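Subject: Sanity check before I submit

Could someone independently write out the structure tokens for this chain? I want to compare against mine line by line before I put it in a report. The sequence has 448 residues.
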Amino acid sequence: MAPRTHLTDLGSIASVDLTELGAGKEGWLDNPNVLCALDTNSLAIASRYFLLVLEWSTASGLAGFRVKIRPNLSPIEAEYISALEWFVFDDIRVIAIGTSCGYLLIYSLGGDLIHKQLVYPGRILRLRVRGTKRDITEDTSSFEEVCVVIPGIIARFDGSDIQRVLQRWYQETQNRFWDQSADRDLEESENSYARLPYQLWNVSKYGSCVDAAVTGVMPPPLLELQSSDRYYCAVTIGVDAAISAFRLSEDRSRSFVGAIMSKVFPATFSTIASFSKLLWRSNQPTKKPEPKPQPFARALPLTCLKDHPRKGEKLTLSPSGTLAAITDSLGRIMLLDTRALVVVRLWKGYRDASCLFVERLVNKDTAGAHEHVKNDYSLCLAIHAPRKGIVEIWQMRTGPRILTVPCPKGSKILQPTYRFGSTDGSSSYKPLEVFFLNGDSGQLSRLN
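---
Independent answer below. Compare away.
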């Protein structure tokens, strides 16, 4: 009997010259400066100063170059690419880049810069795309979002706002294609970027975070007047606090004195500056104003776990946001219930591990018998233990280990990003899957 295989080969990037990224050296994917983001038949790989997008056909399985992007980064600030993610809508696919200076850059697959915006001065650690349309949630409203994680800072963009900006850009690009006289120079186009609205919170109460996530909508505090503002729950991990949680408010109101100062002082300063220009007419060219981040909204600390020398390292959120898998510096993996803010499970002996949530069929005998729906699948956690050379699949929340798959050294587990606008229609449900990228062989595989 032939040995059973748990992986299906999808394609290979071995035919592409990736020496600029360090390919050819053993374990080059383990380099923290090499970032990967996966989408359907596409893979984005970034180094510190440039980005490559690879695509492969299902027929040959061989990858080829789609585009190479070199962002216009600041040499004075030694700016570099620090985060990478796909933004996928119904008919739009773009690449999002976070930089070490706090800028969010969005590029088309043609290499054109669509949007550039300062989120907050600081290194962007993570771009987290999430939505609740495909989850089983009883009492939470549906929303789609992009969260930007900066040390001690969380920013939240609404998915619909990003979609409107992208649709408008593609429409204007098509119009300029037919009207060549509408071309503008680079500086003018950079000044015409529509600013994306977003919320910004300071979550450094218990120290600077290394990863964070907005887990969903939560009720307002007790004895607080009802308002139209939404409240979110955020979980952060870091060096000082292994786990901490916050209630985030959309309200940016401050004290009465602060409100007066925020209104009166800018107006007074503007009046004085205008009067000075009338007295001293300066012929010097005006400098382009530096972009400034918006003020913080309120973040109320809820709980904190400090267990020195334990340090939080990586955070993975379940599709519904009700569970979070957190790895720490002691080789442990904690499963956190984000609603009760209680650790419900603990694994030990998994140093340098990484986790992804996956879905597997509950009853394998029904495979192929009918079109599957969400309830046919069970939520599981895939744990990649590189020191053991395996990937383990554990059933949630307290289920057993159901599968162990060998994983060659130098491999990385990936998962396609959330697709905005995806709904559970009458068609067959597409579960969360895990993909293996072997850096030495260049092979990309999918876990069956």
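---
OP: Matches mine. For the report I'm noting this point. The helical segments are 159-178, 186-191, 256-279.
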